[in-house]
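tool=predict chain=A
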Amino acid sequence: MGILKRALFIIIFLFISFASEAKVAIDGQKTFSELLQIVNEQKFDSLYFVGLNSLSYRYSFEKRMHDSAAFFQELLLDHALKLNRKDLELVALSRKVNIFEHKLIHFEAIKTLEQCYHLAIELKDTAEMTRNLVKLATAYNQHGINDQALIYFDSARNIALKTGDSLRLAAIYNNIAAIFAKDFDKAEYYYKLALAVHEAMRNNARKFPAATNLGTLYSERGDFEKANEMFEIAKNAIPEGSPLWYSQWKIQYSAHLIRLKKETEAEFILTNIINDKNEPKFILAAAATTLSELYFDQGKNSKAEVHASNAFESFRNSGELEEQKICLELLVKLSKRQKKTQQTLKYQEDLLVLRDSINKDINSKQLLQMRLNFDFQTQQQDLALLKTKNELNTIKLETQKYKDTYWFAGTISLMLFSFLLFTKFRDKKKSNKELIHQNQLIKSQKEVIEKERLRTKESLECALDIQKKVLAPEAQLQGLFEDHFLLYEPKDIVSGDFFWHFDSGNADVIAVVDCTGHGVPGALSSMLCYNLLEKVVKEFGVIRPDLILNLLSREMARTNSNNNKGYHLDIGMEVSICAINKSRSKIQFTSSCTPGYILRNNEFIELDRDPLVLGRMDYKKGDSFNMSEIPVKKGDQLYIFTDGFIDQKGGKENKKYYSYRFKELLVKNGDKPMAQQHQALKSEWLNWKGPNIQIDDITVLGIKL
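tool=predict ok
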């Protein structure tokens, strides 16, 4: 049911988006007799050309007399060639494409489209180039040759991007999305691109195709909230006086309502469409098909049969084989359900005949596919051969050019070489003296730098000792948890990361903190942040994680602004903090920026985070931390960490490690003791980092509860 409606919508959209854009006007005011009189006078002026073009168009589209249309089209082309007018030749060939398409001579239509495209290149007409590329892509897509279709769509997209043709660019994205109809992620991506282009253009009406298709996409996936949002956008995008668009939207939306189990509302909408005799036949047929399937599912056999029969007749008149097959299959099921043996046999016979027709159609399409594929591959080979020939010619020209210059260059080089030998010998004596002096100077500077380096290292090591004594030592964890690990890798000797613990009596409050910066600035920030954390918990008596971070952020904001230097400090920190009750049955968790994880039976429970940095919160906008309370079981493993590990660049493509790899690493080693997990994480980090510099301080705390 969804496939049918989407296919109908794509056909409508392709027709709307890429209708013919011939640059010679079609004179719809004159009668056939008046046009024939203009042509018979053969004045060979612009009016004569318009007359031929109009007759070819109107015989093809109005009278469906394609042979007559072809006759005037040939006169049109002949006239353009005599005048040596490439622009008029393009119009004539575009008309020829239309005739071939109406007569279902697909291969010739595609070959003529390729001629149109090459003519547009000659004329440097980017609009016609894009239009013909899109029509070629559409033709290949309709015949199931999607790889070639995507090549043409991509070429059209590149031209539209260069020329700033946003309207056509969005239409191209819609068509590419239709090719990926069975690949949810790609289809969603391209429909969203189309929607974004129209939003940037502030063109509300053009949002309709992408929004409607996204609504159907989300509905079929079961994401009904997003589907509702998209269908609402599509409905608001329908221009006034566009009943066809509104009818198409109602059919798509009815299918969505059926998936939502709102059958009564869907039935009401579809019945109104069917009762409106002003609707086009293909809309009535699509609505009848959808309604018959709904009645079938509800067990309303008589109603289902009426609508399925009506839809079948409409599709038979329009020659839509696949849609006829859907209707007949439904009628067979209905007649079997109602035990109408004779009717069942009749429908089955009709179905056999139809399947035979479909098979013949498939065979003819496969032959066309083979022919188009072969022709396309031949073109690609010819292009590759031409490129190779051009490269060889370029090499030959360059070689000849070099031969002509070698002799002259050789003579000049010999003269220069003799002069250089003399000057080099003269300058060498002078440079040797300077080199000896420079070496002595470098040696003395190196000694000074080495002394300074050792002095700086000693100072940093002293600072590290002070930091270790002030901040909570890892030894505190030993008395709290039997099995744990702390991976702690400062970027420099001292660190902006630190671990913190407080025993409230009822719970152990544990935090992993990442302060602004690393090295000496980070270490100084960590000392300040440590004191603020101690103040908030011990002086204010707050032990709830969310309240701790809210108060801590206010204290940091006050510290940043209240200093006697007359400038604003920019010290911030990201904290993951949890309160674990003494029975180890419950965790209260709050975090700024970095989430926490609980690993239970190789499955992750992700602990929510707030995207807020302490000291930089906007309280006027209501910024405030939230707390998660999670029941835990014996054997659960808790992980809290700073972002240094996941932000480390490395690997073959020199990219960040990212969270998804970090999760996989924890799951892979989750059944090992914590000490082995520590070693596994450190080894993975070293292998990933390779020769790259360490980007940030790293802290990962793992606890087995």
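The CA atoms of residues 108 and 548 lie 75 Å apart. DSSP finds 24 helices and twelve strands in the chain.
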